[in-house]
Amino acid sequence: MVQIQSRPELPVYRLYVLRASYLLIGLWQGSRTWPAILHHTRPWDFWHGVGMSFLGALTLICLLGVRYPVRMMPLLIFEFTWKLIWVLAAWLPPHLGHTLAPDIADSFLGIFLGVVVVPLVLPWGYLWKTYVTTPGDRWR
User: Fold this and answer.
1) Residues 11-63: tens digit of each pLDDT
2) H helical segments located in the chain
3) What distance lies between CA 109 and its chain's CA centroid?
């Protein structure tokens, strides 16, 4: 029989920091995304539609994080990860090559803030104990 380690508890202030982060992402990004989803006047190309749908889903699910800040932490990990990949793959190469397109340059600050702020919000000790050192779910 495998003994299951209990997860550490987070202090209340960390829960409120997480809640504020979810609310900020949900409201700030949602205020930009949902008007574009609900009131677009021409058809979107495939990747623009994928991106808008992704951001719309992200903002809605972030609002769940206000109620369930610990359970929704993988969403913040995902938020940090996709933004880090975007900075490294979409922004950095053209920036270094001095060929940065205006739409990428205009998007940089909002995305880069996620790369800087989200890691400051995440409780890394808790994540390490919960997702790295705790045994995984059984396979059979």
Assistant:
1) 999 999 999 999 999 999 999 999 999 998 999 999 999 999 999 999 999 99
2) 12-24, 30-38, 46-67, 73-86, 92-96, 102-121, 124-127
3) 15
How wide is the angle at C-alpha 25 spanned by C-alphas 81 and 131, nearest 5°?
40
Which of 135, 14, 140, 27 minimizes the C-alpha distance to 73?
14
The SS3 call for residue 89 is helix
Distance CA(53)–CA(59), nearest Å, equals: 10
- C-beta separation of 83 from 114 below 8 A: yes
pLDDT in tens, 89-128: 999 999 999 998 998 888 888 888 889 999 999 999 999 9
Contact between 52 and 37 under an 8 Å Cβ cutoff? The reply is: yes
* pTM to 2 decimal places: 0.84
Are 69 and 15 in contact, with CB atoms under 8 Å apart? yes
Burial 90-105 (b: 16+ CB within 10 A, else e): bbeeeeeeeebeeeee
The CA distance from 34 to 27, in Å, is 10
Q: Is 2 helix (H, G, I), strand (E, B) or coil?
A: coil
